[in-house]
Write a structure and sequence with these properties.
By secondary structure, the protein is an alpha/beta fold. It has twelve helices and twelve strands.
């Protein structure tokens, strides 16, 4: 048996031990304190059974889909069944894990992440999907080599994520959330959807849709300048209303990130958007906001360091849930940032209905918990205007 087929078979074997076949869009009651909401549970969409060779353009798309239903069990499902069960009126969140996440960890973190996301807005319904890709190899000896390989594989799976997005309700506000190399999956997906080339693969012609997309990146293991125009994922920001970058200056793993390979530089989650990046981004820099979680997360890089902090879930809820949040402090726009961004947009003549300024970024519940800081922007005269055509 070919060694590369082992991860796909292992994924199917593990799930077969805990899966009961079934259908139905059951509802699950989830309680947080005195607040109870009804939800159809969450979904796991796996690419384990698909080609994982970077540089090979996607052919036949065959996702493995599973649903966590009201009885607490994981049931085998399908893309068609998932489409029927998703609430088109509710926001949708797709979470993408990072590297060195085995199957057991992916299943466990999905459950914990789902509960964590619901803590951010217990009264709101949310379609939740976990995008699972093969990022762990127990036989690896050379860690830096595997990091590079997983980075390429993450970009490759970005093309699969782009396909998955096409199956989601077009009118449902969409939040793409990526941790570590999952941020690279998200960035590659958005770049690909905008017509960008990923590892020599160009997207097929696609019709423009009215999809509203927001992005949340945690411990983003991508270069801080890869989102700049004409860089590796330079078209990604053209596809989103807003991007929230969680910055952790103390992340130990990302301190070593530039040493992995020659093309690697300072990570986006480590340095944030630099002055020079903002200058190159121009008005696109208004789409990026940054949340400093250095004190909350500390030196750790693992995803559990994030989903174990309910206050972080509350602060990112405006991006995850879109406009479904009830009126109140957690749904207010940071007036200081909004005024600055509006001034920039008016100066460039780009203030349009439905633009970045409709985004609701919740204010911190306690100034001692975290800081919400704007991206570093160049002086106004240095920012080029959008092209008129």
């Amino acid at each position: 048996m070919h060694r590369k087929s082992i991860p796909a078979l292992l994924f199917a074997l593990v799930l077969s031990l805990i899966v009961e076949c079934g259908g139905g869009c059951g509802t699950e009651q989830v309680c947080y304190g005195d607040d109870c909401v009804h939800s159809a549970g969450y979904w796991i969409v796996s690419t384990y059974g698909m080609d994982q060779h970077p540089g090979s353009c996607p052919g036949r798309i065959c996702f493995q889909v599973y649903q966590k239903t009201c009885d607490g069990k994981l049931r085998k499902s399908s893309i068609t069944h998932m489409q029927q069960c998703l609430n088109p009126q509710a926001p949708t969140c797709v979470f993408v894990h990072g590297s060195f996440v085995d199957i057991d960890s992916a299943l466990t973190s999905s459950h914990e992440t789902y509960r964590w996301l619901k803590q951010g807005a217990p009264c709101c319904e949310l379609n939740t999907i976990f995008f699972v890709w093969p990022s762990s190899d127990a036989e690896t000896v050379l860690l830096p080599t595997k990091v590079v390989e997983n980075g390429l594989k993450a970009a490759h799976n970005g093309m699969y994520l782009s396909t998955l997005i096409d199956y989601l309700p077009p009118c449902s506000p969409l939040c793409l959330m990526g941790h570590s190399h999952g941020a690279r999956v998200v960035a590659a997906s958005l770049h690909y959807r905008a017509g960008g080339v990923i590892q020599g693969c160009a997207p097929r012609n696609r019709a423009n849709d009215c999809r509203r997309i927001r992005v949340v990146l945690a411990a983003a293991a991508i270069n801080h300048d890869w989102l700049n125009p004409d860089d590796r994922y330079g078209l990604a920001l053209t596809q989103v209303d807003g991007l929230l970058n969680m910055v952790n200056h103390r992340d130990l793993a990302l301190t070593l990130y530039p040493l992995v390979s020659l093309p690697y530089g300072r990570a986006l989650a480590k340095s944030g958007v630099t002055f020079f990046d903002a200058h190159k981004l121009g008005p696109l820099a208004c789409k990026i906001q940054e949340l400093n979680v250095s004190r909350e997360v500390g030196v750790r890089h693992v995803w559990s360091s994030y989903y174990s902090r309910p206050e972080i879930s509350r602060m990112i809820s405006g991006y995850v849930y879109g406009n479904c949040l009830p009126a109140g402090p957690s749904g207010l726009v940071d007036a200081r940032l909004d005024a600055m961004d509006r001034e920039l947009a008016e100066w460039t003549g780009q203030l349009q209905p439905g633009s970045r300024f409709d985004i609701e970024l919740p204010l911190p519940q306690d100034d001692k918990v975290a800081d919400v800081t704007p991206p570093l922007l160049p002086a106004l005269p240095a920012i080029p205007a959008f092209p008129t055509e």
